[in-house]
Automatic annotation (TrEMBL), chain A:
The lineage of its organism: Eukaryota, Metazoa, Chordata, Craniata, Vertebrata. This is DDB1- and CUL4-associated factor 13. It comes from the Eukaryota. It comes from Pan troglodytes. Its main location: nucleus. It is found in: Nucleus, Nucleolus. Part of the small subunit (SSU) processome, first precursor of the small eukaryotic ribosomal subunit. During the assembly of the SSU processome in the nucleolus, many ribosome biogenesis factors, an RNA chaperone and ribosomal proteins associate with the nascent pre-rRNA and work in concert to generate RNA folding, modifications, rearrangements and cleavage as well as targeted degradation of pre-ribosomal RNA by the RNA exosome. Participates in the 18S rRNA processing in growing oocytes, being essential for oocyte nonsurrounded nucleolus (NSN) to surrounded nucleolus (SN) transition. Belongs to the WD repeat DCAF13/WDSOF1 family. Keywords: Nucleus, Repeat, Ribonucleoprotein, Ribosome biogenesis, rRNA processing, Ubl conjugation pathway, WD repeat. The keyword Nucleus applies.
UniProtKB/TrEMBL annotation, chain B:
The keyword Ribonucleoprotein applies. Its main location: nucleus. Residues 409-436, 504-529, 547-557 have a biased composition (Basic and acidic residues). It comes from the Eukaryota. It comes from Pan troglodytes (Chimpanzee). It is found in: Nucleus, Nucleolus. GO terms for biological process: rRNA processing. This is UTP14, U3 small nucleolar ribonucleoprotein, homolog C. The lineage of its organism: Eukaryota, Metazoa, Chordata, Craniata, Vertebrata. Belongs to the UTP14 family. Keywords: Nucleus, Phosphoprotein, Ribonucleoprotein. It holds the Pfam family Utp14.
Length: 445, 768
């Protein structure tokens, strides 16, 4: 006789270790779990609300400079170390974990115009208004020693910017022309000009390292090839570009921070049309830096705020401001892509989270799963008006808010005029120019 | 700048040439007295000048006949002659002398060659350089296109991109640099070394290795064969055991068991003879088992099995026997065992036989009678009662049902029943007593037992009959009172069947009429027709069912939607076997329904709903517009109405709206108005990447939560697009990361790599 009895496989309900979660057998029959869309919608709504509740991006303010912070540099090997140069010629090195200044150097007389670290992180370079380029050791001098630069190069003109090559002992300065220097020489190994104008910044391409980009005050952006010692192409925009930044993951993409409140992302092979026009600032954009993942960038503006833009979106996803932060002059995204630093006019360096509501520290696996799920839900329901409204809502200072309104009106008026002009003229005689093409004046070969 | 300068110089030159025009004319007029060929040329010139007078080629190139201050290096004018200088002209004077043959040759060679073009200006050259360099760079950059595309479309990107090689050092390396420090470690190492336990890769001790090596092939084969045999034997044994286990015959098992017991006994006896001490131990074991049994009360008839057997015992001989056996076993085990002698065992056997013959109930009573325990006695009677209830499955449950349904109002019949039961018990106990007497006689056959049980049966049957009759009479009374619509029938069919049968045709009618009802304006007949009396229903027997269609037609007018909705839906039930339990439940249900009916006597939900729906329909209907102006063209005032003609004239009828969606759904109201509150949670415009609204809806409708997906699917669905590790520096992408060869060439400028050019450049700089 066969005896029927309950038989259960212990594998189905016994935990492997006692730290595991209890196994709960589940029935996925959809009839047992009705209303999946409304339930997920509510979850998404809650996740969005919670994201706003926990959005506290401001982490720390590093004070110590006695004048506006003019430039920032990251340490290439150490996440916690940051260098900053001020308008009074002072350079400070900060420790982010301790949030204090670990070294102070009176580097220049007048502004520190530019600062950059060597790719190995052993030394750094500064240029100042006193027409000098100085190289400093990253480690401080021993006890009793004087603070002295390793090398000093005295130039003929003022240098307005500096950037170091990503692999070799070569750096580039800009001023009246772009100079490429060997670290060991006191003369530039080559200097490249195209017309005469003051060049405000020069940047090496991090991937194809022989490429350089610079922007000059005659409204143009010039690309150079270091190998062939020649400029490549020049694009002239409506207004002056303050600085550019190369995408660290896409060799031919760079973004330019412009005086006309916009940022332009270009593919350097097709300069006649920007890939994307990023607009949200209400004053000149002074600095831009890419996230090391290459998916987003942060921009600092004269309107006392910094904004984070996705590379493929024309509107910013985030805006950071505080009451005390004045015109933001420089901004950097840290190498682990988690934090943002900005230096501003009122002598402070501020540290922000790149993701405002992200939880810092170690996450348990369940927390991580919940976070991922919430993120996906927010993505899935992002087009729903209620959720969109909550997700987009930001408090803004009154000045920015009113300026946004004002500019909206101006833009609308301009658009209306354009439309009217097209409407009342012979069809085809007034061309319709897209927003992207509007801002590019010319491309010079 | 240089271009400008060039343009200026050109301009200056042209002006100068114009100035030079005047004296030339003079010259023309003055030098008439020149040679023949000169005159010829002049004549030609004159002709040209005249021909150019017509306006088109007015402006003539100037002929320079005078040394000017500014001579442009760019344009050497050959105007003087008016013809191009030809090489032949130069060679003419040389013709005669033969010594200049080499020069001639050279000149002829020159003649065949073309003139070298002017070098481009600096800007042009730079532009070309730039263009070439740009094209080259663009080509270099285009190798990143697939990488960039891949990264943009990637489901997930994990940063930093370069994989960090986990530093796995081989264990030998680790061990060589590692020393045992703590005493425990030293001890362990000592042990390991002593046993020559290998610390590194091959995990066999030397001894094991040796043994492995020692075993020859034949040995291994033999060993294997042995193992195979053992395995086969085991499987045979198992199969046999399984087969034996499957044998259903109880007798077989009994025999086997007995055989085993006998065998054990024999062995025990032998042991007694051979080894009394061991036998004593065995005895003790047996005693222990007995004690355990006694403690556990396992063989008492309180277990589940025993109870079920007790129930079955009435009808099943085998069950009875099993019970008997159990009892005997119990006795055997609970008895204190003095000496295991054969005679006693025999006695027990006889007892068994004896007990086999009497029915279970009787047995129990007998046993209980041994010990004068009043509690036990009582339980015995209750047992009998239970037995009695199970005795007649057809009738007695009804009795039980009546017992249950009997409420306080029906105390009298209950009392009667009790009396009857008591009588029954008394009779039974009498029986038992007589049977007790019979017990004394060893020879009591199966037949007697059967007869006795039959007697009990007949008695019970009579009793239940009585009870049933009473119950029916009571029921009849109730129906005559008319509170509960129930019909008593003499037919064997159960009562519950009938309402169903009666209502069925009606229901069919209603279903058929449903469509018509939809079309009918249900508001017209405002007063509800009389609800069908259940008494009427009861009059309609299954016999007159064939007449139903006729009746249906008659009733068509009577039945409408409201009626349909307000009548109770018949309880659907299988007609096959009307069980008593069902009946019981039915009664309960009926009571329940009655109670609900009483509680909600006031409100008619269905009618309310219908009213509500009517109002909704009215509200959604397009309204007529009345444009009559009272008092216009006729007298107006209180109590005066515009004339009907006028009203007709100025009434604008609204067009019929589209049919309502709930037109054919009697118990549903579908609101077709847009809900503002819901609209706040709805997407108005199709979002960007989607091309069709169905796409979007589908993505929304597939849930991603773990409530609807398995763990693995959930993880896959919620993978984040970008993963970064905190505290890890993300370096820019490198050619090596994506499988390209990095350019080994230095990025230094060409001049830097080419020392020759540097020197020239430096010289230039020095010159400057």
């Amino acid at each position: 006789m066969k005896v029927k009895m309950l038989s259960r496989n212990p594998d189905n309900y016994v935990r492997e270790t006692k730290l595991d979660l209890q196994r709960v057998p589940r029935n996925y029959d959809p009839a047992l779990h009705p209303f999946e869309v409304p339930r997920e919608y509510v979850r998404a709504l809650n996740a969005t609300k919670l994201e706003r509740v926990f959005a506290k991006p401001f982490l720390a303010s590093l004070d110590g400079h006695r004048d506006g912070v003019n430039c920032l540099a990251k340490h290439p090997e150490n996440l916690a170390t940051v260098l900053s140069g001020a308008c009074d010629g002072e350079v400070r090195i900060w420790n982010l974990t301790q949030r204090n200044c670990i070294r102070t150097i009176q580097a220049h007389e007048g502004f520190v115009r530019g600062i950059c670290t060597r790719f190995c992180g052993t030394s750094f370079f500064t240029v100042g208004d006193d027409k000098t380029v100085k190289q400093w050791k990253m480690d401080g001098p021993g006890y009793g020693d004087e603070e002295e630069p390793l090398h000093t190069i005295l130039g003929k003109t003022v240098y307005t910017g500096i950037d170091h090559h990503w692999k070799e002992a070569v750096f580039a300065t800009c001023g009246q022309q772009v100079d490429i220097w060997d670290e060991q020489r006191t003369n530039p190994i080559c200097s490249m000009t195209w017309g005469f104008d003051s060049i405000s910044s020069v940047k090496f391409n991090p991937i194809e390292t022989f490429l350089l980009g610079s922007c000059a005050s005659d409204r143009n952006i010039v690309l150079y090839d270091m190998r062939q010692a020649t400029p490549l192409k020049k694009v002239i925009l409506d207004m002056r570009t303050n600085t550019i930044c190369w995408n660290p993951m896409e060799a031919f993409i760079f973004t330019a921070a412009n005086e006309d409140y916009n940022l332009y992302t270009f593919d350097m092979r097709a300069l006649d049309t920007p890939v994307m026009v990023h607009m949200d600032h209400v004053s000149a954009v002074l600095d831009v830096d890419y996230s090391p993942t290459g998916k987003e960038f942060v921009s600092a503006s004269f309107d006392k705020s910094i904004r984070i833009f996705p590379v493929d979106k024309s509107r910013s996803r985030e805006v950071y401001h505080t009451k005390r932060m004045q015109h933001v002059i420089c901004v950097k995204w840290t190498s682990d892509s988690k934090y943002i630093m900005c230096g501003s006019d009122e002598m402070n360096i501020r540290l922000w989270k790149a993701n405002a509501s992200e939880k810092l520290g170690v996450l348990t696996s369940r927390e991580k799963a919940a976070k991922d799920y919430n993120q996906k839900l927010k993505e899935k329901f992002q087009h729903y008006p209620h959720i969109k409204r909550i997700a987009r809502h930001r408090h803004l200072p009154k000045s920015i808010y009113s300026q946004i309104q004002e500019q909206r009106i101006m833009k609308e008026a301009r658009r209306r005029k354009e439309v009217n002009r097209i409407k009342h003229s012979k069809p085809g005689s007034v061309p319709i120019v897209s927003e992207k093409k509007k801002h590019v004046v010319a491309v010079v070969k | 700048m240089t271009a400008n300068r060039l343009a200026e110089s050109l301009l200056a030159l042209s002006q100068q040439e114009e100035l030079a025009d005047l004296p030339k004319d003079y010259l023309l007029s003055e030098s008439e007295d020149e040679g023949d060929n000169d005159g010829e040329r002049k004549h030609q010139k004159l002709l040209e000048a005249i021909s150019s007078l017509d306006g088109k080629n007015r402006r003539k190139l100037a002929e320079r006949s005078e040394a000017s201050l500014k001579v442009s290096e760019f344009s050497v004018s050959s105007e003087g002659s008016g013809e191009k200088l030809v090489l032949a002209d130069l060679l003419e004077p040389v013709k005669t002398s033969s010594s200049l043959a080499t020069v001639k040759k050279q000149l002829s060679r020159v003649k065949s060659k073309k003139t070298v073009e002017l070098p481009l200006n600096k800007e042009e050259i730079e532009r070309i350089h730039r263009e070439v360099a740009f094209n080259k760079t663009a080509q270099v950059l285009s190798k990143w296109d697939p990488v960039v595309l891949k990264n943009r479309q990637a489901e997930q990107l994990v940063f930093p991109l370069e994989k960090e090689e986990p530093a796995i050092a081989p264990i030998e390396h680790v061990l060589s640099g590692w020393k045992a420090r703590t005493p425990l470690e030293q001890e362990i190492f000592n042990l390991l070394h002593k046993n020559k336990q290998p610390v590194t890769d091959p995990l066999l001790t030397p001894v094991e290795k040796a043994s492995l090596r020692a075993m020859s092939l034949e040995e291994a084969k033999m060993r294997r064969a042995e193992l195979q045999r053992a395995r086969a034997l085991q499987s045979y044994y198992e199969a046999k055991a399984r087969r034996e286990k499957k044998i259903k015959s109880k007798k077989y098992h009994k025999v086997v068991k007995k055989g085993k017991a006998k065998k054990a006994l024999k062995e025990f006896e032998q042991l007694q003879k051979v080894n009394p001490t061991v036998a004593l131990e065995e005895m003790e074991k047996i005693e222990n088992a007995r004690m355990m049994e006694r403690m556990s009360l396992k063989h008492q008839n309180s277990g589940k099995w025993a109870k079920s057997k007790a129930i079955m015992a009435k009808y099943d001989l085998e069950a009875r026997q099993a019970m008997q056996e159990q009892l005997s076993k119990n006795k055997e085990l609970t008895q204190k065992l003095q000496v295991a002698s054969e005679s006693e065992e025999e006695e027990g056997g006889t007892e068994d036989v004896e007990e086999l013959l009497v029915p279970d109930v009787v047995n129990e009573v007998q046993m209980n009678a041994d010990g004068p325990n009043p509690w036990m006695l009582r339980s015995c009677t209750s047992d009998t009662k239970e037995a009695a209830t199970q005795e007649d499955p057809e009738q007695l449950p009804e009795l039980a049902a009546h017992e249950v349904s009997a409420s306080g109002a029906e105390e009298r019949p209950v009392a009667e029943e009790e009396i009857l039961l008591r009588e029954f018990e008394e009779r039974q106990s009498l029986r038992k007593r007589s049977e007790l007497n019979q017990d004394a006689e060893p020879a009591s056959s199966q037949e007697t037992k059967d007869s006795s049980s039959q007697e009990v049966l007949s008695e019970l049957r009579a009793l239940s009959q009585k009870l049933k009759e009473k119950h029916q009479s009571r029921k009849q009374k109730a129906s005559s009172e008319g509170t509960v619509p129930q019909v008593q029938r003499e037919e064997p069919a159960p009562e519950e069947e009938e309402p169903l049968l009666l209502q069925r045709p009606e229901r069919v009618q209603t279903l058929e009429e449903l469509e018509e009802l939809g079309k009918e304006d249900c508001f017209q007949n405002k007063e509800l027709p009389r609800p069908l009396l259940e008494g009427q229903q009861s009059e309609r027997t299954p016999n007159n069912r064939p007449d139903a269609p006729k009746e249906k037609k008659e009733k068509e007018q009577l039945i409408n939607l409201q009626n349909f909705l307000t009548t109770q839906s018949p309880s659907v039930r299988s007609l096959a076997v009307p069980t008593i339990i069902e009946e019981l439940e039915d009664e309960e249900e009926r009571n329940h329904r009655q109670m609900i009916k009483e509680a909600f006597a006031g409100d008619d939900v269905i009618r309310d709903f219908l009213k509500e729906k009517r109002e909704a329909v009215e509200a959604s209907k397009p309204k007529d517009v009345d444009l009559t102006l009272p008092g216009w063209g006729e007298w107006g005032g209180v109590g005066l109405k515009p004339s009907a003609k006028k009203r007709r004239q100025f009434l604008i009828k609204a067009p019929e709206g589209p049919p309502r969606k709930d037109k054919n759904l009697p118990n549903v109201i579908i609101s077709e108005k847009r809900n503002i509150h819901a609209a706040a949670h709805q997407v108005q415009v199709l979002p960007y990447p989607f091309t069709h609204h169905r796409q979007f809806e589908r993505t929304i409708q597939t849930p991603i939560g773990s409530t609807w997906n398995t763990q693995r699917a959930f993880q896959k669905l919620t993978t984040p697009k970008v993963v970064t590790k905190p505290g890890h520096i993300i370096k820019p992408i490198k050619a090596e990361d994506v499988g390209y060869q990095s350019s080994s060439r230095s990025d230094l400028p060409v001049i830097q790599r080419n020392p020759k050019r540097i020197t020239t450049r430096h010289n230039k700089e020095e010159k400057l």
